[in-house]
């Protein structure tokens, strides 16, 4: 991946706003129908946190394998899959955190405060979504090629920027 760029903070913020809008509209719809507010299960919070922890553990193990001076090569497909997981975690964290925030926003603006058993799970989902965004950002940083360590002298400029050298045919070549 020659032009590897990080995910734009605007894209993450957009996903969070979309999630918040969906959560807010869902709570408003349920409240106009006279139904009880939607309370996310605590297993959702736990699942998001476990996904973030697994992502961090895999990213740390990949980083150690890349920076280690052993002659054992690193599988590039493993690194790309981990990077895709890190980027997915950022979007899922923004959507689910925004959704939890939207659910809580509608409840917390009521004149009568609902019981804690209703709004605490919503705030926990918001926090777990934020934690998943952070885990995705950290894993994305750990997936980058470290600068330096170029023994053969090729690709100096690319390695210094933390980008893997291009090894395939040139784009547009037949």
Write up this protein.
- It is a single chain.
- With 174 residues, the protein is mainly alpha-helical.
- Helices cover 66% and strands 0% of the residues.
- It is built from five helices and no strands.
- It starts with 8 loop residues before the first helix and ends in a 14-residue tail after the last helix.
What is the gist of this entry?
The protein is mainly α and 174 residues long.
As a percent range, the share of helical residues equals 55-70%
Instruction: Kindly report how far apart the N and C termini lie.
Output: 20 Å
Alpha plus pi helix count = 5
Segments where pLDDT lies below 50 for 5+ residues? 150-161
Q: Biggest β-sheet: count, sense, barrel? A: none
Alpha-beta content class: mainly alpha
- Amount of beta strand: under 5%
Number of strands: 0
User: What's the SSE pattern?
Assistant: HHHHH
What's the pLDDT, averaged over the residues? 84
Radius of gyration: 21 Å
Overall geometric form? elongated
Write the layout of secondary structure elements.
Layout lengths: L8 H24 L9 H26 L8 H33 L7 H27 L13 H5 L14
Summary keywords:
single chain; 174 residues; mainly alpha; 5 helices; 66% helix
